[in-house]
Amino acid sequence: MLLAIDVGNSDTKLGVFGDAGGEPDRTWRIQTALRRTADEFGVVVTSLFRLAGVATDSVRSIAISSVVPQTDAALAEACRAYFECEPAFFAAATQTMIEVSTERPKELGSDLLCAAIAARSAYGTPLVAVGFGTATTFGAVSREGEYLGAAIAPGIRISIDALVERTAKLPQVALDAPNGPIGRDTVSALQAGFIFGFVGQTEGLIARMRRAIGEDARVIATGGLADVVAKHTTAIDVVEPHLVLKGLALWHASSAR
Length: 257
Description:
Elements: E1 2-7, E2 11-17, E3 26-31, H1 38-52, E4 61-66, H2 72-83, E5 88-89, H3 110-123, E6 127-132, E7 135-141, E8 147-154, H4 156-166, H5 186-213, E9 218-222, H6 226-230, E10 238-239, H7 243-256
């Protein structure tokens, strides 16, 4: 069994895959903590396994995508101590599954590339892989299968937090869309701006990318808030909640051959 770990700026996603790959058998999400020790990682993850009835000794391999290098050493130590596995870290500079034609491939976030690998495998090319996380990312893959580059915008949640923090009278609101784009009170006005504003951003960037790589480009969305945007636009073709984890599983299977 493979344990795939996607360390993001806000959350860390974990998934276990059987020998057949495909969809993860079980997934979890925990908060990313910069000062978490190896023992804390180990206790948290093994506790999640125990509660889900998954045996830790069934894990034979561990693949990690991390955009938070401060956590890497402790996480690797936890993998060795609690799973008796040497983890493999996915990196744009060393992977060979997809050609990267950006100006500085080593700077490319591993999560963006993992998502592109999984989306290309499942849906073909050209494509745009959209990640709704701490940042909202739009990764473009050409018809020939190259990773061309990305657009990166502030994420939905941090944009909301920043606005509320800097405006004394605005409340925190749930990410629910009002009946229309014109709010009739403060809460619905905020909801209209947040939801339809990010829908407009998504549609605008997707349209521009499609003009650049092909109007037939499929758009695959992932991330915790992908469903929030996807249900208000036809620009997104598919929502895949575990796209990065599935990309890690594909990379691990390719490396094991």
